[in-house]
Amino acid sequence: MTDISAVKARLEQTLRSITAKHRRGAAGTATASALATRLDTLVKAVYAQSANPHKKQLAVFALGGYGRRELCFASDTDVMFLVRDDVQKNHAESALKELLHALLDCGLEIGHSFRTINECVTFAERDFETWTSLLDARFICGNRPLSAELFRSLKAHTAKSSKSAFVRQLLQSVEQRHRKYGTSTKLLEPNVKNSAGGLRDLHALLWLLSGIGSIPLQGSSRSTRPSFSIFLKSPQLKKIVSSQLLSGTRNAFDFLLRVRNEMHLQAQGLHDTLEFASQRRVADALGMRSVEHFMQQHYVAARAVSLLAKRVSGWAEYTYCGVPRGGSEKQIHPKFRLRIGAIELRSSSTALTTLDILTAGLLRIEHDASFSTSLEDRIMRTSKALRPIRSREASLVLRRMMNAERGLGTVLQRFNDLGVLARLIPEWKPMVAFFQHNLYHYYTADEHTLTVVANAEALSQADSEVGTVFRKLPRRDTLYFACLFHDIAKPVNAANHE
């Protein structure tokens, strides 16, 4: 076998080269893919050098971030060794031990599993976390026919399993993770992997469409690009969301990978929380002109990821868990209708004006509904052509929204997410993702302001003297406008914005 010290030297040299390219501004996806290829080269070399005849019974797979070719500098390295059945498992155990020892001697710390095809299918049926890891599985080397057999078995399992149960379980896991790591995309100290708008939201989308059989298992592809880069070009995804959102998410994915890689280098280990104390160092290392500019870019990226996640999740929930298409429908406006709890356009060819979008917001409040995914797509595509609120008609609709009993905060938040608020109120645009690098601000300026509006709105239910006063207000719009504009000058002059 080749001298281990020589193998380790080549690995270290490759790592130094990848690190240097990252520091010179290499794309996050390029760095992640290069790190995965580096490990592939090692695993293939160790397998090829083994003299154990039973190695031919093994197929070696990358799992998790390694499987997705989304490896960062300190990511966990998960590998699965697969055999056909229990008889082969007994025979191949000696080969497995030799391979593991050789990988450890080369300095690779890996988490590994040793399974039969039947065990993989059983895990898919009973263990949700293991099932999602198998959705990321990517063949590295060894028994290729066995790899094809595994993917056929996983595809068959996907075809016969309950789509609605899988969608519900996945969306529930996303909700639990957000509760733990943060439901807002604009936290002072976000977790770039697990908070809302983080990389894990993208992984969940990949699992979602793979698990319901809408896209092929990414691991069966021989592409050297990260799985999510391939996923973003899938025909199925293009049917669900606009090309504008896909483009924004592609840039966000690359940015978040760059940030995570730099965080790992700074911490010299696995560290995914972008803490206040480290933000300036990460910004400087990435060549950003200021920490505020860096964090603003992060919030823009997280918002794009969150928008895509909500759109695809909403589509899956509606398709597999909701009321079948063609359900109850109600005509509520010449341009809009209410169908299954969502406001949607009556005609797909309808052009939207500023007045139309405000009207859709008012209808959403009046009917306690959401926007349909098709309406949100149309709003996003229209947003750049929208004009500020100038007409009397548009102003009256906005005031009706501002005087509604409930629902204003939700609509304003959605308008902000869809890029509408900055078009309707030009002074709002600098507020979006505006970040102050100090410990007194938990959210960006826009998120903070919309939280103030939502908290003011919640006073209608408050069992207190303040709640009583609020319920007696002759006009709520005056208070809500004061809330909406109380920080509007911060991006101009934060120190004297009052």
What does this structure look like?
- It is built from 22 helices and eight strands.
- It has a four-stranded mixed beta sheet, sandwiched between helices. The protein has a four-stranded mixed beta sheet with strand order 5-6-7-8.
- The longest helix has 31 residues.
- The protein is an alpha/beta fold and 498 residues long.
- It is globular and about 85 Å long.
- Helix 5 packs across helix 6 and helix 12 crosses helix 14.
Helices and strands in order:
Layout: H1 4-23, H2 28-49, E1 59-63, H3 64-67, E2 78-83, H4 86-105, E3 111-116, H5 117-126, H6 128-135, E4 138-142, H7 144-160, H8 163-181, H9 199-211, H10 227-231, H11 235-240, H12 243-267, H13 276-285, H14 291-321, E5 329-331, E6 336-339, E7 342-345, H15 354-366, E8 370-371, H16 373-383, H17 392-402, H18 408-417, H19 421-424, H20 445-458, H21 465-471, H22 476-485
Helix pairs in contact: 1-2, 2-12, 5-6, 5-7, 8-9, 8-14, 9-14, 12-13, 12-14, 15-17, 15-18, 17-22, 18-20, 20-22
Features:
single chain, 498 residues, alpha/beta, four-stranded mixed β-sheet, 8 strands
Distance between the termini: 72 Å
How many helices does DSSP assign? Answer: 22
What average pLDDT do the residues reach? 90
Q: Which structural category do the helix and sheet elements fall into?
A: alpha/beta
| Count of beta strands | 8
Question: Which H/E pattern describes the elements?
Answer: HHEHEHEHHEHHHHHHHHEEEHEHHHHHHH
User: Which overall shape is indicated by the principal axes computed on the Cα atoms?
Assistant: globular
Q: What summary fits the major beta sheet?
A: 4 strands, mixed
Low-confidence stretches: none
User: Strand-residue fraction?
Assistant: 5-15%
The Cα radius of gyration reads: 26 Å
Lateral arrangement of strands in the main beta sheet: 3-2-1-4
What is the helical fraction, as a range of percent?
Answer: 55-70%
